[in-house]
# Entry
Amino acid sequence: MHRSVRDADVLDYSALVLPGGVVNADELRTVPAAVNFVQRIFETGKPAAVICHGPWILVEADLVRGRTLM
# Structure
């Protein structure tokens, strides 16, 4: 099923996988709805896998402060 991030409900997902790649990560973190979705996923405590440059959206969402990223 394909949905716009604006229409996606975090309760419909078990986890989050953020893509890598310089262009993908930079583009994704400039989309306010995507940043908000990531923040809401983290609020629910669901797991997240982040690849390559993907953590930049976590920085944009202010989710890395006090965390260890591996």
Q: What stands out?
A: DSSP finds three helices and two strands in the chain.
